[in-house]
Fold this protein.
Amino acid sequence: MTLPHKRILVAVLSALMVTATTASSTATPGGQRDFDWEIGNWRTTVRVLAEPLSDSPDQWLQFTGTSVVRPLMDRRSNVVELEVAGTTGRIEGMNLRLYEPQAQRWSLTFVSMRDGLLTPAVFGGFHNGAGEFYGDDHLAGRPIRVRFLITRQGADQARFEQAFSADGGTTWETNWIAVDRRT
């Protein structure tokens, strides 16, 4: 995605946030309401692998803070606002989730507020209560696969895990683990 396209998408995200609505919980086809359980405020603890897919020893960075999940466009999309900090710095970002009714799947796209750039989306949905999302990206100039998993751990807790694969998905290295507890 080119820089002008990324700027346009950020402008669209801003417009979507302004038009957010809280819709009724009527039944809808497919998985359009898969994320309804997550709407609200959360206390977040995050562990991030300092140098994923490297020969360096595993060093995990720790962060704590909040995430706020807001519904958009009759809950066909939502946005997660993440703000966490630790001894090594801060992470501020947004995750835009859009439901594609034709494909009955979700796309999840993260934007770091540090650089204002969007990551390539991961795509998928929920099966048997767990969310699985996959996509392609680049790390240090080489192509990688990305896997993002969401596991509900009761009504007021969830785990989010990201992993990278440098071998097309044969093996995975987890590099991001977040545990959210409802506030």
Notes: The first strand starts at residue 40 and ends at 49. The beta strands are 40-49, 60-72, 77-86, 89-100, 105-112, 122-127, 130-139, 142-152, 157-165, 173-182. The CA atoms of residues 83 and 92 lie 5 Å apart. Helices lie at 3-18.
